[in-house]
């Protein structure tokens, strides 16, 4: 039976505008994003591959880009983002002796040749895709045989407190949706990735007031950009009702904001080889 992707729910034009506006202040509040990115880079210690070409997909301000430049001094490193102002910050990670190749484009339509990349890394960007089947097909297309995709994204328990608090106020969508780890693993296999590995970890930020969380999400560019979002401003009464509902989650004087962080990995198996043992691709 053919697979049909879910209809788009992200307003991509609004998301691009939001991230462009957030670029200059993004690093001031991206605590969780930096921590998740650091853990993604640590996982590269277990990968034997030494890429000739590596891509940071959805690079933001360039944390993963910087890590790739440092770890693989002989590699040609590309940084791609759909927000021009984010890309300007990422460009600063390069040096005159270490050129960085910056691309402004859509991760669902990569401006790269077939089989041109050995390592594709992406930190907390895939949740902004409108068509994951197309996204993974594009990742598969640009990766060479023996290449690897490593990424992080958010799972469905992310910001469940905020989602539940709004649900008590109205029936409108206020929090972006996130996909289950097992569904993503299945999509990787359908796209042609071998030996997909998926795991999840839980992380929590805490706030004194819920409005601090909402300000952080706006400064990150990660506030509500759903196509089905409520049009116009949310009234003061609605915000107050949501804040009161959120108080039910308060613990030890703080309000939690939960994140389900999904780590994914998949390889492009060389079709000239019958079987590639996974151990041969990993450092011991």
List keywords for this structure.
globular; single chain; 10 helices; alpha/beta; Rossmann fold; seven-stranded mixed β-sheet; 284 residues
Number of helices: 10
The multimeric state of the shown protein is single chain
Total count of strands: 7
Q: Would you identify the CATH architecture of the domain at 12-157 and 178-203 and 261-274?
A: 3-Layer(aba) Sandwich
The percent range for helix content is 25-40%
**C-alpha-based Rg, rounded:** 19 Å
Strand order of the largest sheet: 3-2-1-4-5-7-6
CATH superfamily grouping of the domain at 12-157 and 178-203 and 261-274: Vaccinia Virus protein VP39
Main structural class: alpha/beta
Beta-strand percent range: 15-25%
| Distance between the ends | 40 Å
Q: What CATH first level of the domain at 12-157 and 178-203 and 261-274 would be assigned?
A: Alpha Beta
Low-confidence stretches: 1-8, 274-278
Mean pLDDT reading: 89
* Gross morphology: globular
Order of SSEs, N→C?
A: HHHEHEHEEHEHHEHHE
CATH topology of the domain at 12-157 and 178-203 and 261-274: Rossmann fold
Largest beta-sheet characterization: 7 strands, mixed
């Amino acid at each position: 039976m053919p697979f049909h992707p879910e209809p788009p729910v992200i307003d991509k034009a609004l998301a691009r505008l939001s991230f462009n506006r957030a670029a200059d202040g993004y690093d001031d509040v991206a605590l969780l994003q930096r921590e998740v990115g650091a853990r993604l880079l640590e996982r590269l210690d277990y990968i034997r591959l030494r890429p000739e070409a590596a891509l940071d997909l959805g690079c933001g301000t360039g944390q993963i880009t910087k890590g790739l430049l440092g770890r693989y001094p002989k590699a040609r490193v590309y940084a791609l983002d759909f927000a021009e102002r984010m890309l300007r910050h990422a460009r600063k990670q390069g040096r005159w002796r270490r050129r960085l190749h910056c691309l402004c484009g859509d991760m669902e339509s990569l401006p790269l040749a077939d089989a041109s990349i050995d390592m594709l890394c992406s930190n907390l960007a895939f949740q902004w895709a409108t068509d994951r089947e197309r996204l993974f097909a594009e990742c598969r297309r640009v990766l060479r045989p023996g290449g690897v995709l490593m990424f992080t994204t958010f799972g469905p328990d992310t910001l469940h407190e905020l989602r539940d608090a709004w649900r008590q106020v109205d029936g409108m969508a206020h929090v972006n949706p996130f996909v289950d780890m097992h569904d993503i693993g299945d999509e990787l296999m359908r796209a042609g990735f071998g030996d997909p590995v998926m795991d999840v970890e839980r992380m929590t930020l805490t706030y004194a007031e819920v409005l601090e969380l909402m300000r952080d999400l706006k400064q990150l560019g990660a506030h509500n950009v759903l196509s089905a979002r409520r049009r116009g401003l949310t009234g003061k009464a609605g915000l107050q009702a949501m804040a009161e509902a959120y108080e039910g989650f308060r613990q030890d004087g703080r309000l939690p904001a939960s994140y389900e962080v999904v780590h994914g990995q998949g390889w492009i198996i060389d079709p000239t080889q019958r079987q590639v043992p996974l151990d041969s691709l990993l450092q011991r």
